[in-house]
Amino acid sequence: MNIKLYSAKGCPFARRTRLVLHEKGAEFEAHEVDFRNRSEEFLEASPTGKVPVVVVDGGDALYESNIVNQYLDEIYEEPKLMSEDPKARAYARIWMARADEDFYPQVFVSSMGRTRGFPEERISEAQEKLKATLSRLEEGLNGREYLTDSFSLADIAHAGNFVRLHELEENGTVSLTDYPNVTSWMDRIEARESFKAAG
Question: Whole-model pTM?
Answer without folding.
Answer: 0.94
